[in-house]
Amino acid sequence: MADAKIEKLQSAVATLDQISQNEKSGFINLVSRYLSGDADQIEWSKIQTPTDEVVVPYDSLAPPPEDMEATRKLLDKLAVLKLNGGLGTTMGCTGPKSVIEVRNGFTFLDLIVIQIESLNKKYGCNVPLLLMNSFNTHDDTLKIVEKYANSNIEIHTFNQSQYPRIVVEDFLPLPSKGQTRKDGWYPPGHGDVFPSLKNSGRLDALLSQGKEYVFVANSDNLGAVVDIKILNHLINNQNEYCMEVTPKTLADVKGGTLISYEGRVQLLEIAQVPDAHVNEFKSIEKFKIFNTNNLWVNLKAIKRLVEADALKMEIIPNPKEVDGVKVLQLETAAGAAIRFFDNAIGINVPRSRFLPVKATSDLLLVQSDLYTLVDGFVVRNEARKNPANPTIELGPEFKKVSNFLARFKSIPSIVDLDSLKVSGDVWFGAGVVLKGNVTITAKPGVKLEIPDGALLENKRRILFPLSGNQWP
Known about the structure:
The chain contains twelve helices and 27 strands.
């Protein structure tokens, strides 16, 4: 049955002229693995907590060389790759997410470029920047990177694979049924970074330049900056792969974690956990760390494994609906590749290296006085005594970036804030200060304006204007 499905699918895919031969064979390979039930079941009793040799504490790493020349030689072995395939649709934006303004008028991409520029300038090195786009972000990104033409940094873009969505009913590709728009296709997750790096020619180009490692990170993680200490450790210990992990908080209980399994380090995702053990997986006591998706990978090892077709990462089925038609897209994650590399490790890094902006509540954090901007680096305010960031929940009125920005005359001071929950039609004046635990709820149909300079400390009640917009 599976063979018949594959044959039919293969014939249909052969007629799709929008994608390359590499993409066609990669897609068929992925679907074949999916249909054959190619999934290694995790035996719960075999899971072991990794030792400090496998997940190395960041504080135990040797300091990087003090000599500028030695540091330059280290950095000249590095390339930085940002995963730039995502759109800003969650936050109501069109185009690549990396061009959302984060702080002081700078976008994610601006900050990434400034960081690498200052590194290249300081050490006289040549760290190139690669952007892996999807077909959704490619055209816009090409236009955007033109503005960096005069910078001291090589910027290369390449596309990850474009795969056809599969119609669930008859297991045929959606584009072969006349769905020629973008909706017929999907980018198959960031696990595709390894074959796409090879297929684009970028991998061989980096190796010919003497590059040895690539630092891969999400473009929306403001904490994912080049760390010379980590690079130095990997080169000295010949680790082919390193995943940065950081301690879990209650907000991260679903994040993938590293385990030791049958003698190798492996990523364990919640989808692989048997139902009876899900609560155990989510507990912060047993599984104390989670994957930040900051990855350091040896380029020669990528070439070896891709050419041997050895990177058979766990497949993530992602059901969708397009114009009422149920479709399936199969994806893989780059973190799952850890078990195929030799001498792979995790490094347990400070939380400051994980600062993703997934929603406007995250934008509020990074635009506030909790952080400052130094040479493109987002640096935490030392006046904040609590090591954890405040938890922030904003209602749907704040979901889109444009609405979020309109509702704040200026971003409130939150250095002493523990939690904020806002719901209803709430508008913030300039110079507002929030402290402790604050809940602001405007009653339905009521516009609530918080006046300029208001101090809200440990407010835990429904707030509404007494008369007009007067503050209670």
